[in-house]
Structures are given as C-alpha cells and as structure tokens.
Specification:
alpha+beta, three-stranded antiparallel β-sheet, 3 helices, 3 strands, about 30% helix, about 15% strand, globular
C-alpha cells in the first residue's frame, strides 16, 4: 500500500471516498483523517451517491449501501429516483475549510 494522501491534497469527494475505501480494504479500518473529512462532507451535503453506492451519516458514523448489478434504483419519499451530482464533480477543498483533521 502506498503512503496515504492527506484529504487536503485530494481534488474531489470521489477521491476521498475512493481513498477511504482503499485504506479500509487494505487495513480493515479507515484512516482517521479520511473518516473526519468524509463525516464533515456528509454533514454538509447529506446523502451522496458514488459508484453505485449511497453514502450518508448514521448516528455520526459513515455508512454506505452497496447496490448489486440489476437492483432496482433507490427511490425517494415521493417514489421518484433521486438525482445526484457525480462525486467527481464535487470539489473537496471548499467543504474542508475550517475543519480540523487528525494527522
């Protein structure tokens, strides 16, 4: 595994989620800086959609649901399929302004 990159060096929310998942897969726990950064982003933006998964905070913990190929799309309270902004297009730096991240 390569040396973890600081969330402040990442370009997009997609980069952060990919790094969070990669570190979790390699080490079986997320890097504290990734957890703090992703928690801050989810507090500000609410539910996100990234690579077929929904991401949100549940009782203060980062949570996500995997969607199997062929699964019916998620629907909102009105029965409509929600429209998400692709996480690649969400700049990370503005969302981390004023947030203290662990090293």
């Amino acid at each position: 595994m390569t040396t973890p990159k600081s969330p402040r060096e990442m370009e997009s929310v997609a980069d952060l989620i990919d790094a969070y998942q990669a570190h979790y897969s390699d080490r079986h726990f997320p890097l504290p800086a990734y957890t703090a950064a992703l928690s801050a982003v989810l507090k500000k933006l609410g539910k996100l959609h990234h690579r077929g998964e929904e991401w949100w905070l549940l009782n203060g913990f980062v949570s996500h649901s995997e969607t199997a190929p062929g699964s019916a799309p998620a629907k909102d309270a009105d029965g409509e399929i929600p429209i998400y902004t692709n996480t690649v297009h969400i700049r990370l730096a503005p969302l981390l302004e004023g947030i203290d991240l662990p090293e």
